[in-house]
Amino acid sequence: MTVLVGIGFTVPWVLLGLLTLPILWLILRAVPPAPIRRLFPAVTLLLGLKDDESVSDRTPWWLLLLRMLAAAAIIIGLAGPVLNPSRDETGSGPLLLVLDASWAGATRWSSTLDQIDAQLTEAGRAGRPVSILRLTEPEPPVFQAAEAWRGRLPGLTPMPWQPTEAQIPQTLAALEQVEDGFDTHWFSDQLAFEGHDRLVSALQGRGEVIVYQSTASATAILPATYQDGAIQLRVLRANPGPAESVTVLAQGRDPVGAMRVLQSTSLEFESGSTQAQIDLALPSELRARITRFELQGQRSAGAVTLTDDSLRRREVALIAGTLNREGLELLSPLHYLTQVLIPTADFVEGGLTEVLPANPDVIVLADVARLSDSEQAEVIEWVEQGGLLLRFAGPRMAASDLGRDEEDDLLPVRLRSGGRSVGGAMSWGEAKGLAPFSENSPFYGLTIPEDVTVTTQVMAQPDPNLADRVIASLSDGTPLVTRKPLGLGQVVLFHVTADAEWSSLPLSGLFVEMLDRLAVASAAKSRQEAQMQGTVWEPVQILDGFGTLTDAGTLAGVDGVELVSGQIGPDLRPGLYESGKQKLARNVLAEDAVLTPAVWPADVPIRGQDITTETPLAGLLLSLALVLLTIDVIASLALSGRLGLARAAAVMLGALLVVPDAQAQTPDDTDFALNATQELVLAHVLTGDAQVDDIALAGLRGLVQTLHYRTSVEPAEPIGVDLERDELAFFPLLYWPITTDQPQPSAEAYAKLNAYLRSGGMILFDTRDADIAGFGASSPNGRKLQQLAAPLNIPSLEPVPRDHVLTRAFYLLQDFPGRYSGTEVWVEAAPPNAEQIEGMPFRNLNDNVTPVVIGGNDWAGAWAVDRNGQSLLPVGRGYAGERQRELAHRFGVNLVMHVLTGNYKSDQVHVPALLDRLGQ
Amino acid sequence: MNAAQTLRERSEAEASRLPPLLARAEHLAGTVLLGDHGRRRSGLGDDFWQYRPAQIGDSRRMIDHRRSARGDQQFVREREWQIAQSIMLWVDQGASMRFASDKTLPTKIDRARLLGLATAILLVRGGERVGLTGTTLPPRRGNAQIIRLAQAWSEDAQTDYAPPEHRAMIPHARAVFISDFLGPLDEVELALTKAADRGVRGVLMQLLDPSEESFPYSGRTVFESVGGTARHETLKAADLRDRYLDRLARRKDALSHLCRATGWQMGLHHTGDSAQSALLWLYRALDGGAQ
Q1: Which domains does chain B have, with CATH numbers?
Q2: Which residues in chain B are closer than 8 Å to A60, comparing Cβ atoms?
Q3: Pairing assessment for the beta strands A489-494 and A388-392 based on DSSP bridges
Q4: Which long-range contacts (CB under 8 A, 24 or more apart) does A47-55 make?
């Protein structure tokens, strides 16, 4: 292909025809236009007059130009022009495609994959062996045929981290193993990372390196921090560009429990700055609900920041045994507690009976001995539901006989009467220090300052369970802090006072850390390594490269210090971690992170990542020529005074050129409703992908035929519905094929869909990809399905149990194949109390129709028939394939039967028993 | 469709054209004040002219007793001499007249008929006898004659450039010729000289389309007469304009020269102009000719 001015030509020699244009110009000028015939009675006066010159009037220049353009368009059109021709990178030898594959490129991942696909196609054409190397998950490159890689492309996903320091040597070592030289195409995510230059030079040593890098700046959000009563959000971008506005969405669960956007705010990047910042003041109720902040329109782990306890301010009720005496602030038993908690907690004021309905997270009882019976009962109930009751000893507690003979419910241990005091003026012995914390203690790992001493304490009775309940003790082994679980909550007793009278503990930093560990004070500041010493955190949910949270599964726990200070990588994944009652979010970016754009050596060519597809222009140019010639016809007619004819021609041409637009001729709502309701109609959701929609329609048509032949259900011709526009209530069953590029329905459409599901409708989701990646894990359609279905009210699901009514609504079926088979189909889970009754073959399951059926077997493909009733798509091979198609049809019949009859077939099971009872 | 039906249809169509033409002509004629042509001398008539003393030779019956009773002298009452004239019209029915250069303009034949008929209406109201030249419709009085005229003019001739009808001219009558006079000049000359020989004087009105006056054509053109008898092809119509206009001026000259020689009056009217001005001119010309 020859490329001229950015346009390639398949048959360039035809362009020589352009040389004839000047000749054509001259000829056209010389040939007179056709004479105009005019009626003119005074022609008698003209008879005998001779023309002075033999040259006639010339064709008007614009008509000539028009004809020239038409001729040129034909010539160029025939030369086969192609816009954006793929340039011949006729390299040879092995080709290594290096992908950063970090979160920064996740938003553009699909276009990157497209480009890689294009490169693979090209490499395949040139017969070059290819290998793909992901820097975030380096493996020794294996050079294979390009085709082999193409199949594996959808499995490549970006990772939620940058290439780590540990991975660079791995990568370099892996590259060392390759013996031959190779060229490198590097798909960069723009961001620099440690060891970037080493990698570049290593690759340059092996062959030519070309970098593909998008021009759009990578954007990321830093962890939200809480300062001065407001949430501080900071957004970074890699390149200081022009002023730009980004929207940050605060997502969380609403009171119903559904995820929704609780707040959205926009930040402005000033021109030339790389950071934007905003303070977001939210009511604490709302703030506590936020689970994540994300950048709108970005789909990467870097554009998401998870929140943990640090944003959540705990509500603490402080109740002291003695009333505050005015003016004696420092002597108040609550003074030190208040000082510790003010930065991180909200206080609930009032007496015990008043604060309990407010359901605080923590109730602190400082030297409160006795509670009334009703208070006691209420507090126990509150603790059992997950409250943390924190008690401090004191003179009153020591004096009372609380928990003396038998263990009080609200005390972890029995107490000896009187307590003891050591190291005072009137006692022997020295004030005691603290013993190191045991491994089982939540305080394990905290450093104990030397100067913390305890002079007085209440003593625990040595009960058999005492050892289990002690979480901190003095150097002589007597308990300092004891704890016992109670229901979902716990009761913790400090055997000293909350003020500095009995010990210097409240004066020390250890006190703060202890309260922190007990989750009384949540860490508003970022956690210090010291605080995390000795803790192990269990991952609960982790982020993938696209910023979606997935279950952590069986990932190992992470050491606390590593968690706060380690580099995010394969061993430390971003996500939510849990330790005891505390939650900690580890985000992709640390609070002090900076995005540094990658710097490339001057001799590395950098190409944009904008994928350009070849566009053949021949058709366009030839149509242009046709249009020009048509205009020429009309213009010539107009010039020769035959415009009447020209008008007729124009009308006819208009009629020919206007392409009938099926979408434009939509019937109004009433027609739609009539069509949908006059008979039973099955419907499929229009995805916007014409091929998928056609197959879905043909599939439903095939199902309708089957139903006609075999059952008394005789639906009319199926309909495709537009979720945005059409009413859904008319359809018992919606078939929804999933394509990766279908648009997300609007909020109104979701409202409609949820109303539809509530009112007994069923949606059959079909990812059509045979669920290659296991359910929902990483197949693109599966991900799309998750996105699409997230706002829907879908109950918990389970794979179709063997006794589900779908297995016997019409046919007896064991599995539900479509064009593919063997994958699991998911339906609404059975209620937990469903159990098999003796003598019944089936459990008594849900009373309703399952609102969704989810699978990936491409049922419509198996059902699809053309207008003549012939199957459109092949299923399997030979007889086995036909059998599979038959089973697919049977599944369809069962599904429609289930939709229309609910659990009627389930009830039929009871008929013998009923007949028996009736004595028949 | 059979012949009878076609004939019927055509006659209906023709008949339907009559009333509008008539109505328009009546309307046009209504704009001109009319009256008998007073001869400005005593004679037979209805209007009083003068009293004169009875002379010898006047019969007794002629004496106006009402005037004479005022004195001793006897008076005779004289009336103004009024006479009805015969006026013959010729409106060119040739195909060349069925031409209008623009849709907004009337065809020449339409305007010619309108003017002819309006003149006839005026003349009939004035008491004259109106008819066509030739033998088809001799001059008569009365409104029925108007209808007959309109009927006669509702038929188109097929030939281009119809020659003026000059047969059966009534001596000393008046005549009105309306045409574009683009046909052969000899025929016109013959008709006029013949009329002059018989003492017939009249008015010659040349009716032209504005495009015939300005020749706004250019480019390669084939000009054809309406009847298709004459055609002329040119490569550059614009170049012909001057020479054409020259020839047209010469034709007009020749016509007016002919008129002067025969004592006729010549007028020029364009279809783009108002018909009323043409009618007024015609009427004045006829009136003036009556002097």
Answers
A1: 17-36+84-289 (3.40.50), 38-82 (no CATH)
A2: none
A3: parallel
A4: A47/B230, A47/B232, A49/B232, A49/B234, A49/B240, A49/B243, A49/B244, A51/B234, A51/B235, A51/B236, A51/B239, A51/B240, A52/B236, A52/B239, A53/B235, A53/B236, A53/B239, A54/B235, A55/B235, A55/B236
- Helix (H) / strand (E) element for A851: namely none
Tokens 């509702």 -> residue: B154
The residues facing A584 across adjacent strands are: A577
User: Angle B237-262/B185-197 helices, nearest 10 degrees?
Assistant: 10
Length of chain B: 291
> For the CA atoms of A196, A197, A200, A204, what is the dihedral angle to 10 degrees?
-170
Amino acid residing at B132: L
pLDDT(B253) > 90: yes
Token representation of residue A288:
């506590």
The residue among A76 and B10 whose pLDDT is bigger is A76
Asked whether the beta carbons of residue B182 and residue A39 sit closer than 8 angstroms, the reply is: no
Regarding beta strands A536-543 and A558-559, do their DSSP bridges make them parallel or antiparallel, or are they unpaired? antiparallel
Question: Which of A28, A613, A564, A41 lies closest to A310, judged by CA?
Answer: A564
- The residue of B179, B213, B215, B221 whose CB has the most chain A CBs within 10 angstroms, and thus the best one to mutate to test that interface, is B221
Residues of chain B contacting residue A54, judged by C-beta atoms under 8 Å apart: 235
- Integer CA distances (angstroms), A485 to A115, A352, A388, A409, A412, in order: 58, 21, 9, 10, 8
Q: Does B259 touch chain A (CB under 8 A)?
A: no
Produce one character per residue of A369-404: b if its CB has 16 or more CB atoms within 10 Å, e if not. bebeeebeebbbebbeeebbbbbbbbbbbbebebbe
pLDDT value, residue A18: 86
Name residue A145's amino acid. A
- Report strand pairing: B174-179 vs A275-280: unpaired
Residues with Cβ within 8 Å of residue A777, at least 6 apart in sequence: none
CB B51 within 8 A of CB B75: yes
What's the pLDDT at B1?
47
CA dist., res. A182 & res. A188, Å (int) = 18
pLDDT, one tens digit per residue, over A756-781 is 887 778 899 988 887 665 654 567 88
How high is the pLDDT of residue B168? 76
pTM of the model: 0.44
